Amino acid sequence: MQTINHLSNIKDTVQYGWISLGPESASSYMTKNSADSLSVVEKIALERLEQLKAEACEKSGINGDTVNINIHKAGSIALNYGNSKRTVLDITDRLLQGMVDRKSEGVINSLYQKSYRKKIDALPDDPAELQKRLNLLKKKEMYEWVGLDLKCNLWLSDEEIYFILKHELAGHSIHNDNLKRFGLTAIATVINFVSLPLLLDASSEYLFVVGALCIGAFAITKLAVERMINGQEYAADLAAVKDDPKALEGGLRFLKKGMIREGIKNRLNPTFTLSSYFGHPTYRDRYTQLLF
Known about the structure:
The chain is of the alpha/beta class and about 290 residues long. Helices cover about 65% and strands about 10% of the residues. Helix 7 packs across helix 10. The two termini are about 40 Å apart. About 10% of the residues have low confidence.
């Protein structure tokens, strides 16, 4: 039986409840408190998330019973805690709320979705041409995009969510990326702790030499960690879409939206960059890799 730990009321993120999703419907396993607080659409969204997880597990060659999804407030879209034997995926509640909003039949939500898709589709798929178009946007147009993106950026299609789940499972979990990151980070930490006493105990005669060695050791280990994480992200994207048209479709759309968002933010704030975010490559680089 798979377990989803989710917010008992997605709209009011104060209380928490547990839902276990098995072969029957989600409502069969809900606590009374959770069942009372969730709308029909929210229950459907949770069931759909579980279905996409099961599909991603099957395609990734992972036993679905070893993968749990934890729904948390805000934070990153998805964080992976685990390895090839056991995985917990930390999924933001905003993604779940986006699934709810996307399924809602309200006129306002429908107009937002159509406008958002129209703006994305109007921009070229080629990364170089897309960047040229972003560079030509006027400030008013960029702010209009930012406002719409804030509303709709996590109204993800099933294909996009499926790609995200496969990126984590077929990419990171299968290849034990967290263990590799932990090992290299631990080595870097030990080097830094060893270097500091040497620096403090060094005589003035050798202070410069020891200091240079300490700084060099820190810089090299930091670069090594970042380069490893960078490489893992590229590899996880490729593993997610390998022989899987559905994941490729979702990945291209998800990363294109990310590149657009990133490009506009870079123009509005030139100091903004996602390339150093936990060593992750830019959306543009990831999108370009999948496209070509």
